[in-house]
């Protein structure tokens, strides 16, 4: 804050002084050129002023050449100032004479105001306008109280933080504009009903309506910016006492200007007293200037206390901090007096006075806001995520890492001092040229150059700030969405994982789209600021886009298909999908294709136009069904109770119950084979959690079966011997053993043959499946 005074008041005053001198020199040069043209006309025989012509000799010309150019320019400047002063005095004398004449004819002014119907009619019109005003303001007050109550309830339930202040700021503007529109409509309709004609009553009502509307608009913006009753949504860094005090002073100046402006316009346009109206209108400058000086003096200590102390009490910054009110008072008085003087001679609008008074405070506020936005944009909050495939076998599939901070890279934080200095240069140079512009001072080359340069700088800084803020916001939401969607899984099988968030998927695409929009719009605005006609560029881009659309129909097909797939929410970043011969986790979505990461690490790039059927394994839930082979003599009811106990154990596990969407249920016997009954168990889980749950269910069921004496049915071969063989076995031990060995060998051969066939079939199946995986 102390450096703020030094960096604002001193440069602005110096620039104003230098440019005013330049402007005076320019006027002097113009006058000098006119005199030179007159002398040239005399030399060529053309006498511009015959009544005052003098013979020009060679000696006179030599004497003129010896006059220094600087003295000649100074003389022209002084001559111009003298002529303007004489013209101003003449205008004041004529205005005084006209005002005295109008005062002497005050009866005529009163008759015009009363429309020649007496004072009672004037009082009736005044009371009617007051009634319309009170009723309209009452409706406006009710709407404001209603909206303020709703806003406070919303802020109490959801505290406003960070960028939420901007959202509340925009919402308050919309609500206040809506309430002002209701007031506008009610007042206008009542005015038409009360004064249907086109007489002086309607003119007085219209003038009163316009002045009141301007005052209410300024009140709305002051209340939104200062927020004296809502410190939590106040966009400017002020205390409650300072905001309330400043709001009251601003409202006092606003209503004073409105009253003076309304009465001066009524005197001029209705009463026909142009001179009195001009004097009353010009008095607004000095009156508002004095009121502004009173505000500065009243708050001088508060401003000094709000500024931090300077170590060196003899420095220029410390001097400006302690005596900041002196240049502020000088500026306010000069501006008010200068405006009043101009208003006496030419028709000056009160808008120029308001802009001139509050231009520097507004620029200081913009500097504070720009610094705040730069600080918000330079915060290191970016995050990134990656979906890395693991090249292990089918049991170890995709590895996925959570959001982690990006490595330090160059961003706006490194350019913060440069951007801040550029912003300050813009906010120092802009008010100077803008001040000359609103006061009608013509500086063509300097203004054009500064306007183009400032326009390009403003576009570049604004685009950079907008991109950094958008990028940080999107990254923050991506981090939240990935955390909520369970992106920290360490293992996923080939069936996929829990999938990603639709919001996160769209945010990634939105960031790319907004970056392209900012680059294109920034380039076009910069070219427009330089004076380049961008209409042919836009038309040419449209023709080129049409040609590309006809020549690249496949590309257009891919883009449009991708748009409709995203609208249908067919897949998201992080989903495990399968389409045709490609399957894997969606790792990235671009404008025309998506990239899939296979569980074994391979990458598939699939254009959207080639997607015919897409199977998504990461939506809503996954139902897992497990088959067990049990012996025919097993107790089915006992097995059901065992599985029920296993379900209770799984549900009691804190790590597993979060992924369970249903109980583990036994579906009973679903089939019978030669040597076993097929028992089915099923359960429902969150996508991606079925593999961990499945392994745990297998383990616990095996342990429970073993503990309860339930045997799994193994594959075996039953050999039935004919009676003669049985009689042989009933003989002696030796032959019996030999026959038994032979029979056992035959049975073993059969079993080995079946196992060999099964192994060959499994190898063939793996070989057929290898190209797919």
TrEMBL record:
The chain crosses the membrane at residues 122-147, 168-195, 207-226, 246-267, 273-298, 324-344, 350-369, 422-441, 453-470, 513-531, 537-556. Its main location: membrane. Residues 625-712 form the Mechanosensitive ion channel MscS C-terminal domain. The keyword Oxidoreductase does not apply. Keywords: Cell membrane, Membrane, Signal, Transmembrane, Transmembrane helix. Residues 1-25 form the signal peptide. It comes from Desulfomicrobium baculatum (strain DSM 4028 / VKM B-1378 / X). Belongs to the MscS (TC 1.A.23) family. PROSITE patterns: PROKAR_LIPOPROTEIN. The keyword Transmembrane helix applies. Residues 517-553 form the Mechanosensitive ion channel transmembrane helices 2/3 domain. It comes from the Bacteria. This is MscS Mechanosensitive ion channel. Gene3D superfamilies: 1.10.287.1260, 2.30.30.60, 3.30.70.100. It is a multi-pass membrane protein. It is found in: Cell membrane. SUPFAM superfamilies: Mechanosensitive channel protein MscS (YggB), C-terminal domain, Mechanosensitive channel protein MscS (YggB), transmembrane region, Sm-like ribonucleoproteins. Residues 554-617 form the Mechanosensitive ion channel MscS domain. One of its GO terms (cellular component) is plasma membrane. GO terms for molecular function: mechanosensitive monoatomic ion channel activity.
